[in-house]
Design brief:
heterodimer, A: mainly alpha, 8 helices, B: 425 residues, Immunoglobulin-like, eight-stranded antiparallel β-sheet
């Protein structure tokens, strides 16, 4: 059974435990991958699973704090996940986190919501697929999972400028694709109007 | 194009698109969703139970004293029904044994944030604090400082549990070295003015149930004749299936219980009203239910069952592990107080695994069925248990040379199908 994010939020607010299970089934992979990248140096598979399960409990407990006006449900979940992972990391490594500023997370309340058509989304995904393996991983981890530049540098063994340059190159490509899509759409709608 | 814009666009993509890419990136990383599910559900369950199972002998003795004292005074004047609720107090959304104190309204802390809730009962002191701090201790006037025994995150802030303390009305909560004196309010006795209204007559005479009408629903009161038996949940589970695991290598355990079915009420016109657990409860088991049933109407509320449990070990015994491919039949009866079960068979399924089958509910109480119970063994590496209807299947893993193991059975929980009816006027 698959729920939309809105259905999941609504059912979890009603304390429907079936929705809790569906939430876990739908979101385990992205959360696990994010946590894996943060904890894999200092934690075991068991630690990662404990952390992921704690995150789901936190989502259940804090569901009323989710504000759709501030960003998507997925963004909110990934933000919670990162905070929890950092707490685990502190505990597991018994070291202070290097620089908490590096992990500052942003919601999108001051960013204009950009809803793009399914066709354009598919085009965008195709474009991401044309990136080389390293650029693709960097891009997804940075913009989908919201990992910090510092974390990416550390886990992929890249310099700051290498990470920045690769991300910049990817952003430029995406910008071109989106500009082209918008132009094509505009021409299409103009033709329809004639 | 700025980072924020890109992030916003990527985050707004439909889930299925980038999840495929994520799958490809994850490559060899194995995500055991079932294991995460079991762990998360177990944590959710533990949150709800909040270690209510911990009961100390001196505390139980104190409760008995309270009950005896009160009984002498009122014995001639009140019914057996009301007597069964003496010594109980209502705190937030639950009912507890003995005298209890609580924080009526949140208190602003000098350091910022709030002390959101405090519940000090005979079994534990629980604090809910919505503030940033790194160190907490509590003083209760006995010259000692207590550190928390339990911690979790709740919807209203950080939750801390302190166990084995005697309830007092004034406490000092010290956060990062700064003391805060807190005066608590004594919780109302469940039987404050004799207004618990009994459920309709029911053949189960070892459980008394009643209700009080609240502003937007009802509070259900339960009194169990066996003082060791505790209410765990009001309502019957949606599915008669419980999965549990234990792992002696990681020293972890978990279980996955079904939620309870909604409780329904009916008026004389046949309209149905759902009664749901009070939202954001501060204490468990939740006994307050909210409903949109009209205040002026008589409602027939039906509670098909409740879940109760014991917090103690019932038995320990040794089992022989057969040779690979062989099976033995211990036919060992296990008495769990309210119900019985029988260890029927043990099959060695491989050099390092065996499967045990238990037939459940072999005792005489037809209205009681075993929900689950802890079955553990320090001699094995770990185990999984599936409780379904009248059967429990247990799979254990162990070192190859194991020939005998000691099983420990305890902490059982039971569904009592009493079909209680309440006429709410």
């Amino acid at each position: 059974m698959q729920y939309s994010d809105n259905e999941l939020i609504s059912e979890i607010r009603k304390r429907n435990r079936n929705a809790f299970e569906i939430l876990i089934r739908q979101y385990s992979k992205p959360i696990y991958y994010l946590i894996y990248n943060i904890l894999n140096v200092c934690g075991t598979k068991e630690d990662i699973e404990e952390c992921v399960s704690d995150i789901f409990l936190e989502i259940w407990q804090k569901i009323n704090q989710f504000d759709a006006g501030r960003g998507s449900f997925r963004t909110w979940i990934l933000m919670l996940a990162k905070y929890k992972a950092l707490a685990y990391k502190r505990k597991l490594s018994a070291l202070a986190v290097d620089d908490i500023e590096d992990y500052q997370l942003e919601d999108s309340r001051d960013v204009e919501q950009q809803v793009i058509e399914r066709e354009a989304q598919e085009k965008l995904t195709e474009t991401i697929n044309t990136f080389n393996a390293l650029d693709k991983e960097l891009f997804i981890r940075r913009y989908y999972l919201g990992e910090s530049i510092h974390e990416l540098m550390r886990s992929l063994g890249l310099s700051r400028s290498a990470v920045d340059n690769r991300l910049l190159r990817s952003r430029k490509t995406i910008k071109e694709v989106l500009s082209h899509e918008r132009k094509t759409n505009k021409e299409y709608h103009t033709k329809l109007g004639q | 194009m700025k980072e924020k814009q890109i992030r916003n666009i990527i985050q707004s993509l439909d889930s299925d698109l980038l999840d495929k890419e994520l799958d490809a990136l994850m490559g060899e990383i194995d995500v055991d969703v079932d294991s995460i599910l079991t762990k998360a559900q177990s944590k959710l369950e533990q949150e709800h139970k909040k270690m209510k199972k911990i009961r100390l002998v001196p505390i139980v003795a104190a409760i008995v004293c309270v009950m005896i004292g009160t009984t002498v005074v009122y014995a001639d004047e009140i019914s057996d029904f009301l007597k069964s609720f003496f010594g109980k107090s209502t705190v937030y959304s639950t009912v507890v044994d003995g005298t209890a104190y609580y924080l009526e309204t949140p208190v602003d802390l000098d350091s910022g944030g709030q002390l959101y809730a405090v519940m000090f009962t005979q079994s534990d002191l629980e604090l809910v604090i919505d503030a940033d701090f790194s160190d907490i201790s509590v003083a209760i006037g006995d010259g000692k400082e207590y550190e928390p025994d339990g911690y979790s995150r709740g919807p209203n802030g950080a939750e801390f549990g302190f166990y084995g303390l005697t309830p007092v009305q004034d406490i000092v909560v010290t956060l990062d070295g700064k003391p805060h004196s807190i005066h608590l309010t004594q919780a109302a006795a469940a039987v404050d003015n004799g207004n618990i209204i009994p459920a309709e007559p029911n053949p189960i005479d070892w459980i008394h149930m009643g209700y009080k009408r609240t502003d937007n629903g009802v509070q259900i009161f339960t009194s169990l004749a066996d003082g060791d038996l505790k209410l765990q949940m009001i309502g019957s589970p949606v599915k008669r299936e419980v999965k549990a695991t234990f792992n002696n290598q990681t020293n972890s355990c978990g279980s996955n219980h079904s939620p309870t079915q909604p409780i329904a009420g009916y008026d004389k016109d046949g309209n149905v009203y759902e009664y749901v657990y009070e939202e954001n409860p501060l204490a468990w088991p939740v006994t307050r239910f909210e409903s949109n049933a009209p205040a002026g109407k008589e409602i027939t509320l039906e509670i098909p069952g409740i879940i109760v449990g014991y917090g103690k070990i019932f038995t320990k015994f040794n089992i022989d592990i057969p040779l690979v491919g062989e099976e033995n039949h211990p036919n060992k009866e296990i008495d769990l107080g309210l119900q019985k079960m029988v260890l029927q068979s043990i099959v060695r399924t491989s050099a390092t695994t065996a499967e045990l089958k238990f037939t459940l509910n072999t005792g005489e109480r037809k209205e009681v069925s075993i929900n689950d119970t802890s079955i553990d063994s320090a001699d094995v590496l770990g185990g999984e248990l599936l409780w379904k209807d009248d059967l429990c299947t247990m799979t254990v893993t162990f070192d190859e040379g194991l020939t005998q193991a000691e099983l420990m059975v305890g902490w059982p929980s039971f569904l009592v199908s009493g079909d209680w009816v309440f006429i709410i006027k």
